[in-house]
Amino acid sequence: MRGIGIALLLTAAVAARGHGSPAPAEESGTYTVECTFSNPSYSGHCGVSEVTPRSVPPQNACQQILVCLNDAQCTKTYCNATTIRSGWKLESAKDKSGE
Predict the structure, then answer these.
(1) Considering the chain, what percentage of its residues have pLDDT values greater than 70?
(2) More confident residue, 20 or 95
(3) Is there a contact between 99 and 31 (Cβ–Cβ < 8 Å)?
(4) In whole angstroms, what separates CA 56 from the centre of its chain?
(5) 71-90: per-residue pLDDT in tens?
(6) What b/e readout covers 34-62, taking b as 16+ CB neighbours within 10 angstroms?
(7) Residue ranges covered by each domain of the chain
(8) Contacts of 10 (CB under 8 A, 6+ apart)
């Protein structure tokens, strides 16, 4: 009898979880932004794809990457892990997901 009670409680908990409020990522959603950067010291253009929240416009998402590319203290790697940390310019910022 006790086993049935526990099973009912677990079933109720699972059912309630399915009807709870969605996680933050589900509320706002995400998309992929495609950023293109240039630098006179870098051969060709550098393309970076980054998953970002829908609430962040492509220009802002790419601007955050640009700040890192131009900051010697930034430890993230972009553009084939280049060590060039100044002179970068944002050429384009687009929603790559096509939505």
Answers:
(1) 70
(2) 95
(3) yes
(4) 10
(5) 999 999 999 999 999 999 99
(6) bbebebeebeeebebebebeeebebeebb
(7) 24-95
(8) none
